[in-house]
Design goal:
Oligomer: homodimer
Radius of gyration of chain A: 25 Å
């Protein structure tokens, strides 16, 4: 293009603000910089300033953060991202921005209100000198020329497989080979960080294959891409579990991961002196000690199965499964089944049992939020993750950043109207549900499903059809707490007796630090504290306010111990920042953590 | 965008021409339509008008084709492709165009000179009513709602695996599971054509794994994408053979192909009455009869290994391998090796043997063309297939069509200057080669490597380093024809004796119809004739001029017998048109073939 158009007012406003910011930061004037923000401002930083994932609220927190970090970070080159024009709407100006720090390249998002920053997102996406090889910088592959004794790609891979973990130690050990573990491992491979992923199951993808057979992803394909390799254009909207399993299995191969199947971590301890973990693993029945510098638990953000302890569980003569181990309905045609719980897994399992011809009762113990899948797609996700979003230029990468730019503190404000719209859209459905006696809620503040997910990771069902079975009585509904089991059934506190050949405990999971308790020690689990949740002071997410997901993808109170997990989208997005934190440490960069999170809850 | 800019002169010229074409075609006036073309025109049609792959040269051929096809094709809606502005340069106006036919949607490319069409490419890319589900039309995956007895994705896949080929017959049987076979199978899956791919090797990708260990793709990544699933952005420029093998193995899984490994086709015969093949296959040692309606040979466009018959091969005491079965150099360190041939495989194998520390002699029997890999990338491919091309908007799909728009008859004219530039760029290199006694050529008309590939599929080496070994004498060069072998070596016609522990016959391949001779009958092989080559009347590509690759991706003289093959790019591009030809037949559409090719050569 040779034509030049004059900058818009929005562009000028952003450029002016960035110049002011640059001036204040260059002068190491944290107070002046903070004055460029509104009083109710938010600055969310993903490792660019803080080597942490943290949100700073209000000018004082911004000033304090800058005062501590500026001399080290030395940010420069603040500018509007090439090709991205700032846009004004609803009294706000939004802009994509770029900058550099002393160690790498940053990208961010800015919202100006009356010439001051209301929200600022800063992310570090690349370390100078450690850029990932891609595009024009991709590896050559074939080694051209001729040199004696050179090895082939396969020989190099074979040698790595025989050496890493044996004669050479991995820098990073990832426990858990689901989407979070392998997405992170893929990034670490690109960053040249020697990494092993272990998983107790026999094949990559078995994390999904082993679940109940009717399971499909509840999130749509546009939201689910893994790093580097997008699903093809003909991939289904909602992946069946075995199909996503096959994809993840292929992914481990194509991304050249060092993936050890049938390998279980038995114990781990950290030596502060040497900065090294000693991890005993059992690989295909053989005991082996690994000595990584960094240990990452990717064992499922839902944590360990929360199997309740009811009186009589030992005398019940039928089958009992936690939802995570329930194989599906095939053996239960014509049998009587009781499912304890009323969230996602409970509904999916009830639906599949009913479809197989079982007599099914759901036991609702507390109120549940239900959002219909098509309403969620249409109202909740379409603007960021949909075919239309992609067509209008909102790539997955951009959508991730837009989402990340909204501070958790006020995210519910943006969510509430969406769920009000869903309530209106599906009014008949909710009336039928409630008429059937189902206790339905929209979250304590009406902010719906996604906030429940972020706050507690539970308390909802994305309806793909099973809610109607409850509404119309095909799946029976019982309500109340379980008192005990008998030889032949479940008895509720109100005395209701539910005969059962099968009891499924769809009773959820405990915090991820439970894995750390088992693998490392209860002391270390207590030291790092509860994982997940924002401190929203709502059910199962007690205060105080913490502002970010506890312990996820960022430094914890235990050196060299990290947690990753969540849905495919979070695994994709946050794996970049976790990978860069690990790379920076491997490369020996100075990585002082600002505002390391405090621990307020043990579980 | 709400602003409207007036059409450019180029756009107006194209629109005017398309309107004239539309008028002539609507009036079924073939002569008037032909008058819209220059006297030296070319119309290349990929199944849109002819249910064939054919190029018509000059107004008379264009008029004849239209006279025969117009009433059936009824093309309408001729227009400039949305968002693609026609461009004028060098006295030509180029445009992307769209149109519809009575059975589907067409896309094409037009070059106007002085208001008349010089080249026109028409392709049919989609059959109305049989559109592939993708983008907004992608499958939903999860089946929402609840219905008794419904099956999961995995159960459906498992059922297909147990039924197809046993209780249910495939519509299409593809013999050969390399890139051509599986790329076609992926498209047929999307088009809902029941298909089985068989391959004699144990695992998908073994077509590549089984080759000599130093092999890498000689074409760069931008040129090599498979249908639907592009290589990620960090994929190496030149894939090592085992890495591409892993990719193809994953591809068969992700694309949900019915791929039968360890399965060999033993015999096949066609019943004209029933329109059905009877194909006996041996699957993991068990004999089985398949009855497909269509049989596709995807057994390698290079055809069968051409193993020479030299006197003394039976008395030679060392190892003898055809290049296709040569395992690589590991067993030959310090041994004396003779490689017969001087094309791609010969150079690769000489280089790998030298690297492993063998004493290597190459026997050049006839002159060879060498192009350096980096020169080919820079001069030959960069405009269409490169990181820069992608960045400037030339997607792989667009590059394929641009390339397809250049008529084979005049393609050498465009190629010659590229190779002149390479000769200039690498002058020192070629001087050194010739000084070493190597017979080098640029093709009979100086048109270089790609024309040799299209005409004969041999006669060249893409230099990735081994040519220097010959130039500097590290790999010894002998010249002349082989007379015979002795117990301990090779004797040339001039009496030169070359001692050898290993003789590799890098002596190329025969035509693909050799596979048909073995599998079906010599009579059918003779009926369909030679595969590949254009009839250029150059070495190994005898005239008369045929204008398209013989027998490839299009109807042959044998009903229901098809050939596919070639490099990854050809497999990607032509698989669409072959798949649509098969789909049209499966759907029962009328598919009269215009200008079915005649047979001029048996092999």
């Amino acid at each position: 293009m040779t034509t030049t158009t004059p900058p818009t007012e929005a562009t000028t406003a952003v450029q002016t603000w960035l110049a002011q910011l640059d001036q204040a930061l260059s002068a190491s004037d944290a107070a002046a910089a903070a004055d460029l923000f509104t009083e109710d401002c938010f600055w969310r930083d993903l490792i660019a300033f803080t080597w942490n994932i943290a949100t700073f609220e209000g000018r004082a927190e911004v000033a304090a953060m800058l005062a501590d970090t500026l001399d080290r970070v030395r940010p420069t080159g603040w500018r509007v991202t090439d090709g991205e024009e700032p846009a004004a709407a609803d009294g706000l100006i939004e802009a994509w921005i770029d900058f550099e720090t002393s160690v790498g390249r940053g990208h961010g998002h800015l919202r100006l209100r009356d010439g001051k920053a209301w929200t600022l997102l800063t992310t570090l996406y690349e370390l100078t000198g450690y850029e990932e090889p891609h595009g024009a910088q991709r590896p050559k592959g074939a080694k051209h020329g001729a040199s004696r004794g050179r090895t082939s790609w396969q020989e190099d891979r074979d040698r790595e497989a025989t050496e890493l973990g044996f004669t050479e130690q991995p820098y990073a050990l990832i426990v858990g080979g689901g989407q979070a573990g392998i997405g992170l491992a893929a990034r670490l491979r690109q960053l040249n960080v020697p990494t092993i992923v272990i998983d107790k199951r026999g094949r990559p993808g078995d994390q999904w294959r082993s679940r109940y057979k009717s399971l499909s992803l509840h999130d749509p394909v546009w939201y689910d891409h893994m790093p580097y390799l997008k699903f093809p254009d003909n991939w289904p909207v909602f992946s069946p579990k075995d199909k996503i399993a096959d994809w993840l299995e292929s992914y481990t191969r194509v991304m050249e991961l060092n993936y050890w199947p049938s390998t279980e971590a038995k114990s781990a301890s950290y030596n502060d002196q040497t900065g090294e973990w000693t991890v005993t693993v059992e690989r295909e029945g053989q005991s082996l000690v690994l000595r990584p510098k960094q240990l990452i638990l990717a064992t499922g953000m839902s944590g360990q199965p929360n199997v309740p302890r009811f009186a009589g569980m030992d005398v019940f003569r039928g089958d009992q499964h936690h939802s995570s181990a329930h194989p599906g309905p095939d053996a239960y045609k014509g049998r009587t089944c009781v499912v304890i719980g009323s969230n996602n897994s409970a509904f999916d399992i009830c639906g599949a049992l009913w479809e197989a011809g079982a007599d099914v009762t759901m036991v609702q113990r507390s109120s549940t939020h239900i959002a219909r899948s098509d309403a969620l797609m249409e109202i909740g996700l379409a603007a960021l993750y949909s075919e239309e979003a992609v067509a209008s230029g909102v790539s997955t990468e951009k959508a991730d950043l837009i989402f990340a730019s909204i501070p958790y503190r006020i995210m519910h404000v943006f969510q509430i109207p969406l769920y009000e719209a869903m309530a209106e859209r599906d009014r008949d459905f909710y009336e039928r549900l409630e008429k059937a006696g189902f206790d339905h809620d929209w979250g304590e503040d009406g902010s719906g499903l996604f906030m429940k997910y972020l706050r507690r990771g539970s308390g909802y069902y994305i309806d793909v059809g099973a809610a109607d079975l409850v509404a119309n009585g095909e799946v029976k509904l019982a309500k109340g707490q379980v008192d005990h089991l008998t030889e032949h059934g479940v008895v509720l506190e109100d005395g209701t007796e539910l005969p059962a050949d099968l009891v499924v405990y769809a009773t959820g999971y405990t915090s991820m630090n439970g894995w750390a308790a088992d693998l490392i020690s209860p002391e270390v689990a207590a030291k790092v504290g509860k994982c997940w949740g924002l401190g929203s002071d709502t059910a199962k997410d007690p205060g105080p306010w913490e502002g970010e997901e506890r312990n996820m993808w960022k430094p914890t109170q235990q050196d060299a111990l990290w947690f990753t997990g969540g849905n495919l989208a979070q695994s994709r997005f946050y794996s970049l920042f976790l990978a860069l934190q690990l790379k920076a440490r491997q490369a020996g960069l100075d990585t002082p953590v600002y505002a390391l999170q405090e621990v307020h809850h043990l579980r």
